[in-house]
């Protein structure tokens, strides 16, 4: 869990992180419901299995309390302000998880083996590289437009796609860091091992699903092919733990549809 004690200094971080999390997690929610719907075929469209109801109920979350695309831009504007302020005052980055910008740009290996892809340092480097590069591109594009006499607001708006990519990069890095912090606190053992698998799954699926890695050239076509194969291997390794992982959320039975239990019995003539 990302924890902030509320002080005037942390208010900005709370605002930026919660804006990013709201957008990324509500999109993830809809994506997950659709995956669940398809994974169980026709059972997913039965009212009693609740997927349709949950989709109808949660869809609005991507729009209200701040439209997700606009929130992503808000995150990027805050990062822009932080970047400009640090550069202007010639001060190191402090806060918002931007401290990695004080070190040199990470260099990724050209060949990605299975152990490299699962290495937490590699995963962190990839996420930091994406965030750093997008932030530098965004600030440079906005500065160029402002230099040509455009207003700040219009310079942001013209670069809204870059801003949305950056907002996603920031938020996914914050999520990865949260998993790494939780993992570091666990003693060696099976829980730590399973969390490591889940963390790799999260990092590699994020890489696989974000076109930024290819679009801006952080990874090659061969690299993303390796990532895809590793995701498939991870799915096989996580599968035996899937039920225990879902059970660990402690969702009360009353909130679940028959598909979560003995769905064959629930569909038998005697139960209809
Ligand atoms: C069920 C529900 C409850 C609500 N409750 C409240 C409430 O209690 N209080 C309240 O104040 N409001 C409430 N709202 C309003 C809500 O905050 C707005 O619907 C939301 O901010 C989106 O604005 P909009 O509907 O005008 O859509 P628009 O802003 O027109 O958005 C439509 C599309 O345009 C895109 N878009 C808009 N601006 C930009 C931009 N700058 N850059 C890129 N893309 C952009 C959006 O991403 C979206 O895809 C509620 C809305 C709903 C649906």
From TrEMBL:
It comes from Brassica carinata (Ethiopian mustard). This is acyl-CoA oxidase. InterPro entries: ACOX_C_alpha1 (IPR055060), Acyl-CoA_oxidase (IPR012258), Acyl-CoA_oxidase_C (IPR002655), AcylCo_DH-like_C (IPR036250). One of its GO terms (molecular function) is fatty acid binding. Keywords: FAD, Fatty acid metabolism, Flavoprotein, Lipid metabolism, Oxidoreductase. The keyword Cell membrane does not apply. It comes from the Eukaryota. Residues 11-79 form the Acyl-CoA oxidase C-alpha1 domain. It is an enzyme of class 1 (oxidoreductase). Belongs to the acyl-CoA oxidase family. It catalyses: a 2,3-saturated acyl-CoA + O2 = a (2E)-enoyl-CoA + H2O2. Residues 127-257 form the Acyl-CoA oxidase C-terminal domain. The lineage of its organism: Eukaryota, Viridiplantae, Streptophyta, Embryophyta, Tracheophyta. Its cofactor is FAD. The keyword Iron does not apply.
């Amino acid at each position: 869990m990302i924890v902030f004690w509320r002080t005037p200094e942390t208010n900005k971080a709370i605002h930026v992180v919660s804006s990013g999390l709201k957008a990324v997690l509500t999109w993830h929610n809809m994506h997950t419901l659709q995956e669940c719907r398809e994974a169980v075929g026709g059972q997913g469209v039965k009212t009693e299995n609740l997927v349709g109801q949950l989709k109808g109920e949660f869809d609005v979350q991507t729009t209200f309390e701040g439209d997700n695309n606009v929130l992503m831009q808000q995150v990027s504007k805050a990062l822009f302000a932080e970047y400009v302020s640090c550069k202007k005052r010639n001060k190191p980055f402090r806060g918002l998880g931007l401290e990695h910008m004080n070190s040199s740009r990470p260099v990724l290996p050209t060949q990605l083996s299975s152990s490299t892809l699962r290495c937490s340092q590699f995963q962190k480097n990839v996420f930091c590289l994406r965030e750093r590069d997008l932030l530098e591109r965004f600030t440079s594009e906005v500065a160029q437009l402002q230099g040509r006499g455009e207003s700040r607001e219009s310079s942001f708006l013209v670069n809204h796609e870059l801003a949305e990519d950056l907002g996603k990069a920031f938020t996914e890095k914050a999520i990865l860091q949260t998993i790494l912090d939780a993992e570091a606190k666990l003693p060696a053992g099976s829980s730590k091992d399973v969390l490591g698998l889940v963390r790799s799954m999260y990092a590699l699926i994020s890489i696989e699903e974000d076109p930024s890695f290819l679009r801006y050239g952080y990874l090659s076509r061969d690299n993303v092919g390796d990532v895809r194969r590793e995701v498939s291997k991870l799915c096989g390794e996580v599968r035996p733990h899937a039920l225990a992982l879902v059970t660990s959320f402690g969702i009360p039975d009353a909130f679940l549809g028959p598909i979560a239990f003995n769905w064959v019995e629930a569909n038998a003539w005697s139960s209809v």
